[in-house]
Amino acid sequence: MSRRILAAAALAATTLGLAGPAQAQQRIQFEFWYGLTGRLGEIMEEHCKRFNDSQTKYEAKCVGQGGYDKAEQNTIAAFRSKQHPTLVQIYDAGTVNFMLSGATYNAPDLARDFNMKIDWSGYFPGIANYYATSKGQMWSFPYNSSTALLYWNKDAWAKIGKTKAPETIEEWWDDVRAMKKAGVECGFAFDYDTWMPLEQFSAIHNLPIATKNNGYDGLDAEVMFNKTKFADYMKDWKKLLDEGVARIQTAQTGKTILQAFTDGSCASMLSSVANHGVVGSTAKPGLNWGVAKLPVYKDFKRHNSLVGGASLWILQGKSKPQYEAAAAYIQFLLQPKEEQWFADVTGYIPVTQAGYKAMVDAGFYADPKRQGREIAIESLTFTPPTAVSRGIRLGNFTQIRAEIRSELEAAFTGKKDVQTALDDAAQRSNQILRRFEQTFKGKQLP
Amino acid sequence: MDRRATFDNLWLAGALVAPQILLVVVFFYWPTMQALYWAFSTQPPFGGTNQWVGWQNFEQIFSDAVYWNSVRVSIVFAILSTALSIGMALLLALMIDRQLAGHKAYRFVYFWPYAIAAPAVGLAFRFIFAPDAGFVSAINQLAPNLWNPALKGWDAMLLIVIANSWKMMAYNFIFFLAALQSIPRSLVEAAAMDGSGVLRRARDIQIPLLAPTLFFLLVINITESFVDSFGIVDITTGGGPARATDLMVFKIYSDGFKGLDYSMAAAQSIVLMLLVIGLTFVQFRYVEKRVHYA
Question: Taking CB atoms and an 8 Å cutoff, what residues of chain A touch B44?
C-alpha cells in the first residue's frame, strides 16, 4: 500500500518537474553570474527578473557567487572544467586577468556579430578609459559603476559650527580633532580596504600607483605607492588613530564602517556611492548626513576620481543562441529606463551620458532622497582622465590589495612603522607582478 | 610452514579492491600528481600551457619570510588547539564516565559541535567574540581594549584555537568515553576500595589505560589542525590581523584561489603534505613506543 503511494507520488513529482522546464524550454536560457551580495545582490536578481518579464524569447538564469572575488575565482574554476556561465560580472580589479585569459568573447565582437546598438562614445570617458585596451576598445561592458565619496554626519559637524563638508584633508583632520573636543568620540571610521585610500586617493591627486602609467603600458610595471603622498596619508591615519579621534571598524570588531556611520557612532567615512541607497535605508532615524567629494591635500590640484564597480564579460565556449540571449540582456540593461531604475535602487551611476542626461531631465537628482548622488558624477568627471588618473592595470591586483591590507594591519596595530610596512607591501607587490609576468610570459596587454 | 594468507583468484581479488583503489587514485593520487606537476611549473589561471620552472617555486617559498611566518603560526595553532581539545575532551569524558547527574543528556549533547560545519562554527565564534558587539564585549566594558582580535594577533590566535578546539573536542570526547567505558569496572572499583580518590584513579589507572586512544587522537588532532582548519580561519579572522592567523592551509587557499597563483599554491600544498607525513611518521616512530596496547 505505502509502496504504491510512494510510486504515485514519485510519478506526480516527475510529471510536475517535467512540466516546468518544458514550458521554459521554448525560451533560450543563459547563465549570468554576479558577485554583488546583500541588498545589491537582491537587486541583481530583480534586474534579471525585469529582463525575463520584459520579453518571452530569452531567459536569464542569474546566480549569485557571494562576493566579487568569489565570482572571479568561481568563474575561473568553472571555465577550467567547462561549466562556466555565458555572462559574468567581474570587478574592476579582475579586468587584466580576463583580458589576458584568452577565454573571453570580447564586447566589440559580440556587438558586431549580433548587431547590437552600442554607442561606444556615449560611455562616460572616465568609465570607458578604465576598461579600455591600449587601442581604446572595451572588451567588456561597464555595468554597475561607482566612485568613492566622503560621507559626513552633519549633526556632528554642526557641533563645531560648520555646515560644509571639508574640502581639503588638512581641514578634515582639524574638524575631526575639533569634534573630539566637542564630544564626538569617533570623527572618522576606516578599515583596511585599499580602494578608497590608495586607488581613489592617488587618482584625485594625480599620483601614480605604479610605473608604466599604472601598468597600462606593460606587464613589467613596478609599484611605487610607498614613495608618493599616499605614504603621508597613511601616516596621518595612524596619527589620528593614536590620538583616539579615528577608529578602525571591521566585521571583526563587530561593526563595519558602514554600520558605525549609520548608527551615528562615527562621524565620517569614505565609501562608495553605491552605498548611498543603503546608508539612506539603514541610517538610524533622524541621522542627518551628506556626501561630498573626497578631500584632497591642499597643495594638490584635484583630478577626476576612479570608476569602481564591475563590468560584464562574455565567455567563450557557448552556443550561438546563448550569445544572442546575452547580447539581448546587455542591450536591455543599457536602455535609459533600466539605467535609471538601477541607479535609483542602488546609488550606482549611469554608465552612459545619454542615461545620465535622461535622468537629470527627469528630475532624478532633484529628489531629496537622492541628494548628493550627482556629486559622484561630478567627482568622476572633474578633469579629463590623465595617464594615471585613468585607472590601474596591474596583474593580480586582488593579491596586491591583500598584501597592502596585511601590511596596513601591521602598521595600524603598531607592529611596524607605517613607512616600513608600505615598503614591505611594495616589495611584495613587485614580487606578485614579476610572478604574474612570468606566468603570462610572451603575452602582451591588449 | 608458511602461514601467510594467500589468495589464489587474483582477478577476483583485483575486482574486489578495484572500487577502493579507484577512489584513492581519483581523489588522492591523481590530484597529488597534478599538484606535483604544477609545483614545478607555472600554471596560468585559466589553464593552458605550463612552463617548466624546476625548483623555482620552492626556492621562492622557502626564501619568503611570510611563508615561514605561516609555518610558525600553524605549529603554534596545532599545539594549542590539540592540547586544548584533548584536555577538555578528556575532562568531560571522565566526568561523564563517573555518571554524574545529567550525564545522559550531556553525553548526547557533547557530540553535537562536531556535526556543525566549520564556517558555521566560525560565524558563531566571530559573533560571540566580537569586541564591540559580542558577548565577550563585556570584558572590554571592564577593561577597555583588553580583548580585540581585530587588532591583536594573539587574541585572534586564541579565537581560532578556541573555535577549532570546541569542534574537535566533540570528536575526541566520543573516543575517550568509549575507551573509558571499555576499562574494566573492577579495576576502578578496586582502586576506590583501596581508598584512592577520583583524581588518583584518573591519573594512575584510567589515563594510562587510555594511552592508545590518546595516541590516536594526538595524530588525528595534529593532522586535522594542519589541514582542516581553513573554514574557521576564513570566517573569523581571514588570516589577520597582520598575518597573525595566516595558517599554512589558509595561505595555500589565498595564494591559489584569491591570488590565482595555482603553481605557488601547489608547491605549498606539497610541502604541507610532506610536513604532515613527516609529523605522523615521527609520532609513530617515537611516541608510539611509549604506548602499551592492552
Answer: 101, 439-440
Q: Give tens-digit pLDDT for B49-67.
A: 788 999 999 999 999 999 9
Query: What's the number of domains chain A is made of?
Result: 2
**Residue of B263, B255, B196, B243 lying closest to B36 (CA atoms):** B263
Listed in sequence order, the DSSP H helices in B113-229 are 118-128, 137-142, 153-181, 185-193, 198-201, 207-209, 211-227
Q: Catalogue all structural domains in chain B, each as residue range(s) with its CATH number.
A: 63-290 (1.10.3720.10)
Integer Cα distance of A341 and A327 in angstroms: 20
pLDDT digits (tens, 9 = 90+) for B190-205: 998 998 888 898 888 8
Strand partners, A248: A190
Q: Does residue A17 have a pLDDT over 70?
A: no
Contact A406 B47 (CB under 8 A): no
Cα three-residue angle B275-B276-B279, rounded to 5 degrees = 85
My answer on whether A273 and A402 are in the same domain is: yes
Q: For residue A397, count other CB atoms closer than 10 A to its CB.
A: 26
Q: Which residues of chain B are within 8 Å of residue A432 when distances are taken between CB atoms?
A: 259
Lookup result for grid cell 594542519: B226
Full residue range of the structural domain in which residue A103 is found: 2-146+308-370
DSSP secondary structure letter of residue B176: H
**pLDDT tens profile A273-332:** 988 888 988 999 999 999 999 999 999 999 999 999 999 999 999 999 999 999 999 999
Q: What is the C-alpha separation between A304 and A387, in angstroms, rounded?
A: 12
Q: Name the residue facing A101 among B45, B254, B255 (closest C-beta).
A: B45
- Write the single-letter amino acid at B190: A
Alpha helix locations (H) across A159-270? 169-181, 201-204, 211-214, 229-243, 257-262
**Partners of A266 in beta bridges:** A186
DSSP A357-403: HHHHHTTGGGSGGGTTHHHHHHHHTSS---TTTS----TTHHHHHHH
Is the preceding peptide bond at B241 cis, omega within 30 degrees of 0?
A: yes
Using the Cβ of B47 and the Cβ atoms of chain A, whether some distance falls under 8 Å is answered with yes
Question: B258 and A69: CB-CB below 8 Å?
Answer: yes
How many C-beta atoms lie closer than 10 Å to residue A389's C-beta? Answer: 25
> Which residue spans within A66-187 are E strands per DSSP?
87-91, 104-105, 141-146, 148-153
Q: Which cell is B33 given? A: 600528481
